[in-house]
Design goal:
Blueprint (H helix, E strand, L loop, with lengths): L11 E3 L24 E3 L4 E3 L2 E3 L2 E4 L10 H10 L4 E5 L2 H4 L14 H10 L3 E5 L15 H5 L9 H17 L11 E5 L8 H13 L6 E5 L11 E6 L33 H7 L21 E5 L8 E2 L4 H13 L5 E4 L4 E2 L2 E2 L2 E2 L16 E2 L13 H20 L3 E5 L9 E6 L4 E6 L11 E9 L4 E11 L4 E9 L5 E5 L2 E8 L2 E7 L7 E5 L5 E2 L1 E6 L2 E6 L8 E4 L2 E6 L1 H4 L2 E6 L2 E7 L3 E4 L2 E4 L5 E7 L4 E4 L3 E4 L8 E6 L3 E9 L11 E2 L4 E2 L9 E5 L11 E9 L2 E6 L2 E7 L5 E4 L4 H7 L1 E5 L9 E2 L11 E10 L2 E6 L7
Parallel strand pairs: 1-21, 5-6, 5-13, 6-7, 7-8, 8-9, 9-10, 10-11, 11-13, 12-50, 26-32
Antiparallel strand pairs: 2-3, 3-4, 14-17, 15-16, 18-19, 19-20, 20-23, 21-22, 23-24, 24-27, 25-26, 27-30, 28-31, 29-30, 31-32, 33-34, 34-37, 35-36, 36-52, 37-40, 38-52, 39-40, 41-51, 42-43, 44-49, 45-48, 45-51, 46-47, 46-49
Helix pairs in contact: 8-9
C-alpha cells in the first residue's frame, strides 16, 4: 500500500556546513612518509595506513592491578570495543629509592604492553614525570619531594632526574614502539601542566634524544593549558567531580557536557590542584575554550565513572557515562579516551598506602586502598552496565568510525533551557548522523520533545526524520543514521534506531540496529524496495518506509534485497559482543561478561547457569571448566548453549544495625581546609563475619558484597586493611580471593563508622536522606567462575 506523507511545515530544518579545507603536514606529529602502517595527524582527524582512524582508548593502570588479573581486564577492554589502552607510569612505584628501579611483578610495563598486544590493543604510555591519578605526591617519589627542587620546570637538576627516569621507561619500550612494528602508538608528557609549555616541549626533546620515536605525542589540554605546538592537546569531560567543594551541588561545567558544543575545554577539572598547589586561578573569560581548525578534537579523560573523596562523594550513573560519551561524539570528537576504564587498588610503598591525601599537602582525602572509580570494569573485575552502554557506541565506531571521523560537525540547541531541543549533525554533505538528546542527570532532567521531526539538508536532498512527527521521551541520547549504505545499491535514508555493527553469515550480510525504549522504529529506504520478514512497507514519495511487525529483539529480521537488517532491543544490545572466535568474527549474546583470546571465548559468570548464543554459529562449543549443553537451532538465526558453573551467591548475614561507641570528631585539613577522612577506628562498630571455606573454593574469584549505609568502612583480614569504602549509595565489594585460607580460618572484620548528617559530607540527593548511624542490609559472597569455551568451526566457508 502506498501512502504519500508530506513534510510537516514546522519540522526543524538543519543544514550542515561544508568542512574547512583539511590540512596535512603542519604538525610535528605522525610517522614519516612511506612508513609501514603509517599514522598521520591531520587538522581534522587521524589516519592509519591511509584510512581515517577513530581511536577508542581506556585508562588501565597496570601497577594498580594484580599481574594475574591483567589478561582478564585487557580482555574486557577489547571486548568492550577499545582499540587502545592508556596507562600511567608512576615514578614512585618504579624508583622508590634514587637510582634503584623496579620493573618486576605488576610493575613490568613491558609485559603489560605485550599482553595488551596479544589482546589486539595498542598502547599510549603516559610517561609522567608527574601523573596525578590520585597518587601520593602525584606519583613523585618521596625522595624527590624531599629534595625541594623546582619540579615540573626546566631546572637542570630536575631534568637530570627526569632523563634517568625516561631512559629507564624507553628501555622497556625497545621493540614495542609503532615504528618497530609494536603496539605503542603514543606517549603523553607530564599531566595537567598549565603554564610551562617550554618544559612540556623539553620533555619531548629529552625522550627523542634518548631514542624514542613515536607518531603521537600528547599533553593534557584542559584548564586553559598552554600546550606547545610539538604536542597534541587532549581534553576531558566529567559528569561530576570529587574535587569540587562539599558545598557544590553540581560542578559548573558538568551540565555543559551533556550538550553538543564545539567547546573542548573544561576549566573545572583539576582546578583544586591548580589553585592549592600551583596558585593558578583561571578567569574563564580569558581562557581559550575553542581550538582553531588546525587540530583534531581528541580526548583522553571522558569520565568512565568517578572516584570519591571523603568530603564529596559523587554518584555518577552508568547512563551518565554513556550519554556524556555520545554527546562528545556528537560534538565532533575523533578520539574517545576514557578515565578510568578499569578500576584498581592503591599501591603500598615504603610510606604506606600511596593515595592522594591531606597528609601529603593535597586538597582531598581519597580512600587509602580502593581506586574503583566506578569504572566500566571495577576494581575486582566487576563488569558494569556502562561497559555495555559504551560497547554499543564502540561497535558502531568500529563499523563506521572511519567515515564519521571525516564528517563536519554542526551543533544546534543546547542552551540551559531544558525544554529546548538539543541536536547536532555530523555529515560529509552526502550522508551522516543526526544526534538528539533529552538526557541530563536526574538532578537537572530535561523535558521530553513532543511532535519531533527534523529535516536535514544535505548536498542534493533533504532527509526528514521521522517521516511522521513522534514524541521523544525524556532521558534519551540518540545517534540516527542518514543515508547509510546498506549495500552498493541500497541506501538506508534514515532510521529511528542506532547502527551497531554488521556481519556476514553463510546467507549473506546482516546489519544490526538497536531500538530505543519508547521510540518506535522506522526505517526509510531510497527508492521502491521489496520488504519481507519483520517489516511492512509503505510508500512516501520516492521512498520506502518500513514499520516493524515484530517487537525488536534478537530474532527481529527485516529482509531486504542483498541484506538483512536485525533490529534488537536495548536488553539484547547490552548483551551483544563482537569477538574473534575460532578464526572469524562472530556476534555473541551472553548473559555473563565475556571476552575473546587466542580464538577462544572466556566467560566470567556469577550465576549457576548462563546462556551463550553465537552468530554465525560454530559446529560446537565445549569447555573443560563447565557443563555445556547445546540448545535447538532449527531455522534460528542464532545457536544457543547453556553453560552450568559453580558460580552463584550466598547470603552471609543481613539486617544488622551495629553501634559505633565512640566515632571520632570531624576534622579538616589540606590546603583548602576540607573535611579529612577519619584515621582513628578505635571507636568504630566491629562486625565479625565467619565465611565458610566452601564459599571461597572452586571459583575464580570470591567477592564479599556489603550493602550498607554509614560513613566510612574498613575490611580487615587478620591485622591487614584489605579494603575501604566511603559510603555514597553503592554496595561495597571486597575481594577475598587472595586470602582464601585466612578468611576460611579467621573470617573478616568490618570496622564501620556511622553516618552523621551534620558532619557536612556531600552525597547525592538521591541517597542523602538515609537514617543516621549504621545499617547493614545484607552481606553476601558472590562466587565468580572463569569458563574457557572452545568453538569448532563447520566445514562451510564464510564470506
Amino acid at each position: 500500500m502506498n501512502i504519500d506523507v508530506h513534510p510537516v511545515p514546522t519540522a526543524r530544518r538543519l543544514r550542515p556546513e561544508p568542512p574547512p579545507p583539511l590540512r596535512r603536514g603542519h604538525l610535528p606529529l605522525g610517522d614519516p612518509a612511506g612508513a609501514s602502517d603509517r599514522i598521520e595527524v591531520t587538522s581534522g582527524w587521524m589516519e592509519r595506513a591511509g584510512k581515517p582512524w577513530f581511536p577508542i582508548t581506556g585508562e588501565i593502570h597496570y601497577s594498580r592491578l594484580p599481574r594475574d588479573r591483567w589478561s582478564e581486564v585487557l580482555g574486557h577492554a577489547r571486548a568492550g570495543g577499545l582499540d587502545t589502552v592508556a596507562t600511567y607510569v608512576f615514578w614512585q612505584a618504579h624508583e622508590p629509592q634514587p637510582g634503584q628501579f623496579r620493573w618486576d611483578g605488576n610493575l613490568d610495563l613491558r609485559a603489560f604492553i605485550e599482553l595488551a598486544a596479544r589482546h589486539g590493543l595498542d598502547v599510549v604510555v603516559r610517561m609522567g614525570p608527574w601523573a596525578h591519578g590520585e597518587a601520593r605526591y602525584g606519583g613523585f617519589p618521596d625522595w624527590l619531594v624531599e629534595r625541594v627542587l623546582p619540579t615540573r620546570t626546566n631546572d637542570p637538576a630536575y631534568l637530570e632526574l627526569v632523563r634517568r627516569l625516561y631512559g629507564q621507561i624507553i628501555d622497556q619500550l625497545v621493540g614495542l614502539t609503532h615504528a618497530e612494528g609494536g603496539p605503542v602508538v603514543g606517549v603523553q608528557m607530564d599531566n595537567e601542566l598549565y603554564d610551562q609549555p617550554e618544559h612540556l616541549a623539553t620533555l619531548r626533546m629529552i625522550a627523542e634524544d634518548l631514542g624514542l620515536r613515536m607518531p603521537i605525542w600528547t599533553a593534557t589540554g584542559w584548564g586553559g593549558a598552554q600546550v606547545p605546538e610539538s604536542l597534541l592537546p587532549l581534553y576531558s569531560a566529567y559528569s561530576d567531580g570529587f574535587w569540587e567543594d562539599s558545598a557544590t551541588e553540581w560542578p559548573e561545567f558538568a551540565a555543559f557536557h551533556f550538550r553538543y558544543s564545539e567547546v573542548r575545554d573544561d576549566l573545572t577539572v583539576g582546578a583544586d590542584l591548580r589553585e592549592s598547589l600551583d596558585g593558578i586561578v583561571l578567569d574563564p573569560s580569558a581562557a581559550q575554550l575553542e581550538d582553531d581548525a588546525a587540530l583534531p578534537f581528541a580526548t583522553c579523560e571522558l569520565g568512565g565513572g568517578m572516584h570519591v573523596a571523603y568530603h564529596r562523594r559523587p554518584l555518577v550513573t552508568s547512563e551518565d557515562v554513556g550519554a556524556l560519551a555520545l554527546a562528545k561524539i556528537g560534538s565532533g570528537s575523533v578520539w574517545q579516551g576514557y578515565y578510568m576504564y578499569a578500576g584498581g587498588t592503591q599501591r603500598r610503598g615504603g610510606h604506606g598506602t600511596e593515595q592522594e591525601s591531606h597528609a601529603t599537602g593535597y586538597p582531598n582525602d581519597v580512600p587509602a586502598v580502593s581506586y574503583d572509580f566506578y569504572a566500566p570494569v571495577g576494581e575486582h573485575g566487576q563488569v558494569r552496565l556502562h561497559h555495555h552502554l559504551l560497547r554499543r557506541q564502540h561497535l558502531w565506531l568500529a563499523t563506521d568510525g572511519s567515515q564519521l571521523a571525516t564528517m563536519r560537525t554542526m551543533v544546534g540547541g543546547g542552551s540551559e533551557d531544558r525544554s529546548e531541543l538539543r541536536w547536532s549533525v555530523r555529515s560529509d554533505g552526502h550522508r551522516g548522523y543526526l544526534f538528539l538528546t533529552t538526557y541530563q542527570p536526574a538532578r537537572r532532567p530535561l523535558d521530553p520533545q513532543p511532535g519531533l521531526q527534523v529535516a536535514v539538508e544535505l548536498d542534493d536532498t533533504i532527509v526528514t526524520v521521522p517521516s511522521r512527527p513522534m514524541d521523544l521521551p525524556a532521558g534519551l541520547s540518540l545517534a540516527w543514521p542518514l543515508r547509510y549504505p546498506l549495500t552498493d545499491d541500497l541506501v538506508l535514508r534514515s532510521a529511528t534506531a542506532r547502527l551497531v555493527t554488521r556481519i556476514a553469515d553463510a546467507a549473506g550480510e546482516i546489519v544490526v540496529l538497536s531500538a530505543t525504549d519508547g521510540v518506535p522504529v522506522e526505517l526509510v529506504l531510497d527508492g521502491d524496495v521489496d520488504v519481507r520478514g519483520a517489516g511492512t512497507a509503505r510508500r512516501d514519495g520516492g521512498h520506502t518506509v518500513v514499520d516493524l511487525t515484530d517487537t525488536p529483539g534478537p530474532d527481529t529480521v527485516v529482509e531486504l534485497p542483498g541484506v538483512r537488517v536485525l533490529v534488537v532491543d536495548e536488553e539484547t544490545v547490552n548483551r551483544l559482543y563482537r569477538l574473534e572466535i575460532a578464526g572469524r568474527d562472530r556476534l555473541v549474546l551472553s548473559g555473563a561478561p565475556v571476552y575473546g583470546i587466542d580464538g577462544g571465548l572466556v566467560a566470567h559468570p556469577d550465576t549457576e547457569s548462563v546462556t551463550m548464543s553465537l552468530l554465525p554459529a560454530p559446529a560446537s562449543l565445549t569447555s573443560d571448566d563447565a557443563d555445556v549443553v547445546a540448545g535447538t537451532a532449527a531455522g534460528a538465526l542464532w545457536k544457543t548453549w547453556t553453560v552450568s558453573t559453580t558460580a552463584g551467591r550466598r547470603t552471609v548475614t543481613s539486617g544488622l544495625q551495629p553501634h559505633a561507641p565512640a566515632p571520632p570528631d570531624p576534622a579538616r585539613g589540606g590546603p583548602m581546609g576540607r573535611l579529612s577522612a577519619p584515621r582513628d577506628f578505635t571507636g568504630a562498630a566491629r562486625v565479625q563475619l565467619d565465611v565458610p571455606g566452601e564459599l571461597l573454593a572452586d571459583v575464580d574469584r570470591a567477592l564479599l558484597r556489603i550493602g550498607w549505609t554509614g560513613d566510612v568502612g574498613r575490611a580487615l583480614i587478620g591485622e591487614e586493611v584489605v579494603s575501604d569504602h566511603f559510603w555514597h549509595g553503592r554496595v561495597w565489594d571486597v575481594d577475598l580471593t587472595p586470602w582464601r585460607e585466612l578468611v576460611a580460618r579467621d573470617g573478616v572484620t568490618l570496622e564501620l563508622l556511622p553516618w552523621r548528617r551534620d558532619t557536612g559530607v556531600w552525597v547525592d540527593p538521591s541517597v542523602r536522606e538515609v537514617a543516621e548511624g549504621i545499617t547493614v542490609s545484607a552481606i553476601e559472597v558472590v562466587r565468580v567462575a572463569k569458563v574457557l569455551l572452545t568453538a569448532e568451526e563447520t566445514s562451510a566457508s564464510w564470506s
